[in-house]
Specification:
This protein is mostly helical. The chain is built from six helices and no strands.
Length: 129
């Protein structure tokens, strides 16, 4: 009987740290995504980004025409949460402080990908399928 209570690596579900391996050579976006995963391995930091910060930023974009000052406050608060995740939990410097354009490039690629998917969905099934 194995006295070690920790399951073998092949028996465990992969963790965020194990998923942080760099993506194979591909598009520049693949490199950005691999770097994002590498810089966001702590589950609390990951949640502060995906569950708190980015939704607050999305809400801020929606509110800009109606309440511009609220939008500015939401973006500032969102970045405060995300910076706290890096400094308090992850122990690294946020990417935006090292490479200021990277988060915007990733956001643009995500928006472009979602937009393309919506266009294909609206167009309906193609005749070639």
């Amino acid at each position: 009987m194995n006295a070690n209570p920790t399951p073998a690596a092949e028996e465990r579900a992969p963790t965020m740290v194990e998923d942080a391996t760099p993506a194979p050579a591909g598009s520049r976006l693949d490199g950005f995504v691999a770097k994002y995963r590498q810089d966001h391995t702590h589950p609390v930091n990951h949640f502060l980004h995906l569950g708190v910060g980015w939704p607050m930023c999305a809400l801020a974009v929606i509110l800009v025409p109606f309440h511009p000052l609220w939008s500015l406050g939401l973006v500032a608060a969102a970045y405060a949460f995300m910076f706290a995740g890096h400094f308090l939990f992850e122990g690294n410097k946020p990417t935006i402080l090292k490479h200021p354009t990277t988060p915007f490039v990733i956001a643009w690629a995500l928006i472009r990908g979602l937009g393309g998917g919506l266009v294909r969905l609206a167009a309906g099934p193609s005749k070639g399928r």
